[in-house]
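Example S7 (structure tokens).
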């Protein structure tokens, strides 16, 4: 009996199909990530933040500055 015959008797019959499908999924996922990252410009400096007119209330996180204390006459 050859080693290859023992190899195929021990393993289930459909494991090659599962292995090929899993490998194809990993390759497709890697290509998708590479496609998404390739358009990014990591070396460019960050742009300015757009400001909106009007108050920022309910989204403001900064505490407003307190007015300077008035000097007594």
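Recovered sequence:
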């Amino acid at each position: 009996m050859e080693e290859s015959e023992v190899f195929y008797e021990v393993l289930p019959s459909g494991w090659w199909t599962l292995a090929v499908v899993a490998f194809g999924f990993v390759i497709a996922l890697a290509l998708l990530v590479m496609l998404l990252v390739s358009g990014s410009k990591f070396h460019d400096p960050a742009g300015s933040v757009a400001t909106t007119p009007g108050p920022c209330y309910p989204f403001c996180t900064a505490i407003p500055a307190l007015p300077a204390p008035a000097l007594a006459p």
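Notes on this example. The chain is about 45% helix and 0% strand.
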